[in-house]
Amino acid sequence: MAPSEEDGVVEEKESKKKLASPLATAWLTFYNIAMTAGWLVLAVAMIRYSYQKRTHKGLYRNIQKTLKFFQTFALLEIVHCGIGIVRTSVLVTGVQVLSRIFMVWFVVHSIRPVSLP
């Protein structure tokens, strides 16, 4: 079979794909493992609190530092897009991440029953 035009288009598209460097791959692997571990820690803390206290009251106060840390750590997702190690829109990722941070840092603190000790 003779190569067709379609074969050339496929080869061209494949050659244009930017392969992630081994350092970027290692970093993204570490980042994803760390984030997964963090959310797992939060889930366990929520389940443990709910099981021990038999209520949701006071749950946020119990997990707020860990929640804020891992939610803020997600700012690196915007950096990943900005420097090109992931192929996603900086704008879309920025809106998603910043909206979650806004909820955790500003909206929740404005609700008195949640933010009171």
Tell me briefly what this model is.
The chain is mainly α and 117 residues long.
Query: How many separate helices?
Result: 6
Question: How many distinct beta strands?
Answer: 0
| Low-confidence sequence ranges | 12-16
Our estimate of the beta-strand percent is under 5%
Q: Could you describe the largest sheet, including whether it forms a barrel?
A: none
* Strand-pairing-aware structural class: mainly alpha
Q: Rg to the nearest angstrom?
A: 21 Å
Shape: flat
Mean pLDDT: 84
N- to C-terminal separation? Answer: 75 Å
Helix content: over 70%
Name the helix and strand elements from N-terminus to C-terminus, one letter apiece. Answer: HHHHHH
Oligomer: single chain
Task: Write out key terms for the chains shown.
117 residues
